[in-house]
Design goal:
heterodimer, A: four-stranded antiparallel β-sheet, B: mainly beta, six-stranded mixed β-sheet, four-stranded antiparallel β-sheet, 0% helix
Chain lengths: 113, 112
C-alpha cells in the first residue's frame, strides 16, 4: 500500500491555458473522488468514480472541467481555459466499500496567474 | 441541502488542556459522521467515525458521539499534546453513501 499519489504537486499556469492532474489511487480501491480546497475552506466535492464509471458530478464542475478514469485505475482531471478562480488545491481520494473511509493524496496545488 | 458547521478557529491551547471542537450538521435521514485531520504538510486522514445515532467514535485519545437529537458530533480530547496541532474537519456522508460533505475546518495549535 503506497497510498494515493498525485502529480504534479504544484502547477503554475497562465490564464487561458489547459492543465491536467493525475491521481493514482490505492490499487485495490474501486472508488475514486476529486475534491477542490481553497484557503480557509473545507474540501468541496467535484466528482466520483466507481471503477471506470463517473457516477456523480457536482455543479461546481463546469464544462471546462473533465475527469476520466480509464480502465478503473488512475484518473485525470483536466481544466481547460483556466481562470484565476480555479486557483486551489485539487485533492484526490480513493476508498473501498466501507462508508466514508477515504484515503487522500497530498493534493495538486494550482496557481493561475 | 446537506451541510456541516464547525466552530471557527484557530483554537490555541496549552499542552494537557481539554479540547472541544463543536460540529453540527444538517441532513435528511441518517448520515454517517466523521472527523478528518490534516497535519502540517500531510494529506487528510480519517481520525474517527460514527455511523448511527449514539455511536461513539474514538481514536488516538479523541472521541466524538453522534447525537441525533442535537444534530451534533463534537470532537473531544482530555489532554492535548503538541503533536495534535493540525486542522480538523468534520464531515458527513448521506444515506446514499457517495460523496463526503466537509465543514470548513478548525485549526488547533497546541503549545508546550
Amino acid at each position: 500500500d503506497t497510498g494515493v499519489s498525485q502529480d504534479p504537486r504544484h502547477k503554475i499556469t497562465k490564464r487561458g491555458q489547459n492543465v491536467t492532474f493525475r491521481c493514482d489511487p490505492i490499487s485495490e480501491h474501486n472508488r475514486l473522488y476529486w475534491y477542490r480546497q481553497t484557503l480557509g475552506q473545507g474540501p468541496e466535492f467535484l466528482t466520483y468514480f466507481q471503477n471506470e464509471a463517473q457516477l456523480e458530478k457536482s455543479r461546481l464542475l463546469s464544462d471546462r472541467f473533465s475527469a476520466e478514469r480509464p480502465k478503473g485505475s488512475f484518473s485525470t482531471l483536466e481544466i481547460q481555459r483556466t481562470e484565476q478562480g480555479d486557483s486551489a488545491m485539487y485533492l484526490c481520494a480513493s476508498s473501498q466499500a466501507r462508508p466514508g473511509e477515504l484515503f487522500f493524496g497530498e493534493g495538486s496545488r494550482l496557481t493561475v496567474l | 441541502g446537506d451541510s456541516v458547521t464547525q466552530m471557527e478557529g484557530p483554537v490555541t491551547l496549552s499542552e494537557e488542556a481539554f479540547l472541544t471542537i463543536n460540529c453540527t450538521y444538517t441532513a435528511t435521514g441518517y448520515p454517517s459522521l466523521f472527523w478528518y485531520v490534516q497535519y502540517p504538510g500531510e494529506g487528510l486522514q480519517l481520525l474517527l467515525k460514527a455511523t448511527k445515532a449514539d455511536d461513539k467514535g474514538s481514536n488516538k485519545g479523541f472521541e466524538a458521539t453522534y447525537r441525533k437529537e442535537t444534530t451534533s458530533f463534537h470532537l473531544e480530547k482530555g489532554s492535548v499534546q503538541v503533536s495534535d496541532s493540525a486542522v480538523y474537519f468534520c464531515a458527513l456522508q448521506n444515506q446514499a453513501g457517495t460523496a463526503l460533505i466537509f465543514g470548513k475546518g478548525t485549526t488547533l495549535s497546541v503549545s508546550s
